[in-house]
Structure of Nucleoid-associated protein:
Amino acid sequence: MTEPLNTIRNLVVHHLHKDAHGPATVSLRAGELAVSASAQRLVDRLCKHYAERLGKGYGRFEDDEDNFPMPRFVRQHVEEGSIDFISLAQLMMQHLQTRAEQEQLASGGHVLIARVDNGSADFLLVAIITEAIGTTMTEDLDIIETVHLDLANLRVAGRIDLAAWQRGAERYISFLKGRGEVANYFKLFLGCNDVVVALRETQKLVQGLEQFAERQQLEPSQRDQLFERAHVFLDELGDEGLPLSLDQVASKAWPDAPQQLRHQLADQDLALSSGFVPDRRAIKPLVRFKANAPQWKLEFDRSSLRSGAVIYDKHSDTLVLSNIPEHLKRELLAD
């Protein structure tokens, strides 16, 4: 799959100073960053890491702009043009400082704010990036320590799809869920209402599994095994009222290569949330076919096609059913 081309329209990095259980302060950069090759690589890597992460929350702006001012800031910049990008970023930092103060476990870092166009979406990306110490070799083959931005352990980030927001889409904000309380303060900063409808999310999960089977061109037996394993796991969670993890779904449903399925479930177009309790009604298509026409209705297990109890003849476009129960035979003969 070709990576989308990220055109950086605006970019700035500020800093949030915050230790766990401590106060929050900010250091603001005076102007935008130039879009250098290094800046482009950083944004590209950040977008890639973000896109590949499972366990995101999705939602839309809260209606209360007094307590959740992000939609007002965005509207002033994007639609009204009354504030420039730097003013937008500074207002965002002031609000981030307030929200970080309210969460004791929040920690600081470099706050990257960028407006990016990747051809399919025009979005604001906000990420808090921390530093890590690594090692490298000098030209003289000495081992030295070096500090780098730790994108691999990105924990706090969010994205606002501006085009989707402007056209009135149902959901246009996403954020990394990560650890509960930390994710919650960042969700409040974004002004995101992430009410999840379990039935709809479960249907999207089933859709993602079906897309995976199609894109991997699985043999019928492999597809059945994938769907059966997923059904068993999701049915157990639904029965016990337990929320799912998409990482767990990938590991349980496709244990030999879970990363392949994780990549599919992380698809931005699928916009699949994590942490909901599966709706058992919505997982039936994984193991059962159900269809109707003006003169009939039909439902049968997918395994029936493998066992021969149901045979589809594509040349005559007919279904042949075997092992007809006695009571149905009597009713058919009576007509």
